[in-house]
Amino acid sequence: MDIELGVKAQVAARRSAHPWLEGDHLALGPGPQLFTDWRYVLPGEIGVIGPYWAEPDGTPIPLRLWDDVDRQDRPVRARFVPSDVPSGIRIVATTAQREGPLPAGAPPGRRIIYRDGLYQTWFDRGTGEAIRPLWYAESSDGYEYGGERECQFDWSAAPEAAGHERTEIFFDPSAPVEESYKMFFRCGVPTKGEARQQILEHFARERPDDIHPLGGDFRYLSGMWGATSPDGVYWTVLPGPLVIHYSDTTNVVYYDERLRRYVWYARCSAYGRRCIGRAETEDFRRWPLPDLLVWPGLHHHPADDWYTNSKTLYPGTIDQHLMFPALYHHMDDTSELRLFSSPDGIVWSEVPGPPSVPSGDAGAWDEGCVFGGTDLIPLGTDRVALPYGGYRFPHKYPRNPHTFRHDRGYAVWPAERLAALEAEQDGSFTALPMVASGRRVRLNAAVKAAGHILVEVADHKGRALPGHTFDDAVPILGDSPHHRVAWRGGDRIQLEEKRSFMLRLRLRCAKLFAFEVEQ
């Protein structure tokens, strides 16, 4: 019986991929598949294709012996025979190269949208902490910007929000043309006055779960307002606030086409520490409070917390969710950008290894602290970049026009090389059974002179396909983003379309950054 699953059930189904069940496989999304977490690596499940126990001579022993008269009531001598269990590998983040500082008071800003070959950005021309006019510009290459226009606002529906800050802008593919662009911004309302009283009374009466005490009682009412635009320049501010929550860092909002919901990544606080929160809604005009998502782990210093989140997608994908949150060090008032990864934007893993973007060297424009922007954008066909902001002095250093100078730059990686699945010596793993429209496999990998990568293809039950075994594999050597996996008989997987398959890999002295199944 066919059942149309709801959005939440679909998310759970995409995570499942039980390799021992017929048809329960991993459907690959478009674009490259990055090795930023373990989602593609089979752990060695105990099932049809998984490890088992055997007699000393290698004869498999069934799992259940209740009905075995000779074994049901006596000790069993057995040895463990692992199958498709990964070994000798780890995933580690890579550090970006820096470009900057970019020209002050000019585009791009820390918010860049790349869509249909066009880079769109919003930026300000002011300095210090004053509220500044917002400007729009666009580019065809991410460097040379033109078409600069000052954004115009209709505040008639929310005059109390005219003193706004912390603007987040995104393109909404689900909206009518007149609301194609949406803005989400923080605003503080004075501690006295009719506007404040009306807002508090409305939330107390109609939305008591959508007001955070810090936002209602800390110096002034702080909430999130919204606006819509057909072009990113002319904006209509919505009645607000959409939620009462204090989030005075970069707020990332987008429409998730798989969830069919708007998603917001916000600043939260817990036990004296800055943290990252997440909320979702079907109605952009009405938001719940964010739930706590990421807070400092026990592997971090007790004087660290998470500041800006810099949530983004890898370009050209729908399920390669990434964050570059700023890890703030109370010990010395500096920060660095770390890498997090998620298959759905809901469950996250911090990628081990060095900072993706550390604070700059002594004397550099970003020596004091760094904070990530959005989005991760392509630069040509062979690089990706994250806009980020840097300060010459530490975050809470006494501020004046000299010490609080803020500059922008790009953190740049070779395409797909944000993290690597690495085998320093010999390593191996098996990828979950997957379904893809193509039958050729490309690897983005760097192999040392004494190393290699071998690839075997198996069906969903782990049986190697004839002509696609390790013995048939053409070794992958050298450093290239375009290694083509091949066997003696060619580079095409000889398997019916829509049938799932598994990849087994043996690596030696190699780094594997991504793979893609192509036509």
Would you mind describing this structure in some detail?
This protein is mostly beta strands and 519 residues long. Among the domains are: 7-45 and 84-92 and 420-518, Jelly Rolls, CATH 2.60.120; 50-83, no CATH class. Helices cover 5% and strands 39% of the residues.
- Proportion of residues in helical segments: under 10%
Number of helices: 3
Extract low-pLDDT stretches.
Answer: none
Class per helix and strand makeup: mainly beta
Distance between the termini: 32 Å
- Percentage of residues in DSSP E strands: 35-45%
What is the second-level CATH architecture of the domain at 7-45 and 84-92 and 420-518?
A: Sandwich
How many beta-strand elements?
35
Mean pLDDT: 91
Rg: 26 Å
The main β sheet shows up as: 6 strands, antiparallel
CATH class term of the domain at 7-45 and 84-92 and 420-518: Mainly Beta
In the CATH hierarchy, the third-tier topology of the domain at 7-45 and 84-92 and 420-518 is known as: Jelly Rolls
Shape: globular
In short:
The protein is mainly β. Helices cover 5% and strands 39% of the residues.
Keywords:
6-stranded antiparallel β-sheet; mainly beta; 519 residues; globular; 5-stranded antiparallel β-sheet; 39% strand; Jelly Rolls
Helices, strands, pairings?
Blueprint: H1 7-16, E1 26-27, E2 33-34, E3 52-54, E4 79-81, E5 90-93, E6 97-99, E7 111-115, E8 118-123, E9 135-139, E10 145-150, E11 152-154, E12 164-171, E13 181-189, H2 194-206, H3 213-217, E14 221-229, E15 234-237, E16 252-256, E17 261-270, E18 273-281, E19 291-294, E20 304-306, E21 311-313, E22 321-323, E23 326-329, E24 334-337, E25 340-342, E26 349-350, E27 369-372, E28 377-379, E29 383-391, E30 406-414, E31 419-430, E32 434-435, E33 440-458, E34 479-484, E35 502-518
Parallel strand pairs: 1-32, 11-15
Antiparallel strand pairs: 2-35, 3-4, 5-31, 6-30, 7-8, 8-9, 9-10, 12-13, 13-14, 14-15, 16-17, 17-18, 18-19, 20-23, 21-22, 22-25, 23-24, 25-26, 27-29, 28-29, 29-30, 31-35, 33-34, 33-35
